[in-house]
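Supplementary Text 2. Reproducibility record for the structural model of the 438-residue chain.

All settings were left at their defaults, and a single model was retained for analysis rather than an ensemble. We include the record here because the model underlies the residue-level annotations in Supplementary Table 4.
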Amino acid sequence: MKGLSEEIVRKISARKREPEWMLKLRLSAMREYFRISEPGYGPDLSGLNLAEIRTYVEPETEMRSSWEEVPEEIRETFEKLGIPQAEREGLAGVGAQVDSEYVYHNLKKRMEKSGVVYLPLEEAVRDKKWGEVVRGHFMKAVSITEHKFSALHAAVWSGGSFIYVPRGVSVEIPLQSYYRMNAAKMGQFEHTLIIVDEGSDLYFIEGCSAPKLSVANLHAGCVELYVRKNARLKYSTVESWSKNVYNLNTKRALVEENGVIEWVTGSFGSKVSMLYPCAILAGEGARMEYTGVTFAGEGQELDTGAKVIHLAKNTCSVIDARSLSQNGGRAMTRSLVKVARGARGAKSFADCKSVILDSQSDADAVPEVKVDEAEAEVGYEASVGKISEEAILYLKTRGISEKRAREMVVRGFVDRVSKELPVEYAMEMNNLIRMEME
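Retained model, structure tokens:
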């Protein structure tokens, strides 16, 4: 199903057997999509023709709860991403989505006993109990009128995860979702909705990938996170899209009193990225930490960063954004820090560092700071530089090849991000960096 029309929206909704409220929301979002203009900033999106994008692609298999039941071709794809290994090591629930549908989903029994809910989102929408919970949170942290691609997402979303962690429950091991685009000229529009209730703790990991294709694909997912009073959520993403993908994702967290949201992001691949995880610190003492690294190579324009909005007293945020560019790649780091009137005692610090690995590449930082409260502390620091030739020379005098020395310097630059990831994901990120440098 290519493009966007009322007929397509109705077919998607009927295919998923959705309640009437979801169909109405989809149709309203479709109308907003045609009304809203494309963003007036950021990378050139003229190579993206929605009329040629398939907004829904069904994989040739049904969802399974046992890994062995999944067709061999799909198993081989996800084995390369480490899902079976993750299961063997005891990591919690794993959901795997190919194109527009989930093909594998499992949740450990002990998670179910503690009351943790982890469902494909479309299943949660139809559920008698959780359907109303979804209705009260879906496209509430992110509005359908936010921008053109949030409207598109809401109109044709498919797949994704719903997670609810009950009050006072600490999930011992991470939950995970993997998203894979296999088809050409397709759009993937998964929606992740997570609610971490009062006093609870969750670590969620998201992995994304796509094969190399010669035509444009679109990824316009949406992540909505609700962190209740005294709760903590760590959300990690390692994205390794192919360089034909337009990655136009929207992520937002609403954080209540003394709640904590931690973003950890590794952005690789994609032709174009526009990705700025955002936290709204709505309760007193709420905190946000963002740690991210972006690597822009040949033919890539990666426009990334983070946003934070301080609405309450004594809130705190730290943004640590790092980027690398090579072979003519362009890395743009955008950050927004907004302190509303009445957010007394708010503190925020943003540090954006960029390293350019050759003379053909480019890097920029675009900060935006809005402070409407006199009793607040806001700091911003940015730097752009080339790789240290002195460090390379020093390592070469110790018998290390120049190629290996450059890899070591770069890995040291992104070390802070690696340390925030589980070992297997840190290894994946380091391998992606090595591959980009080669």
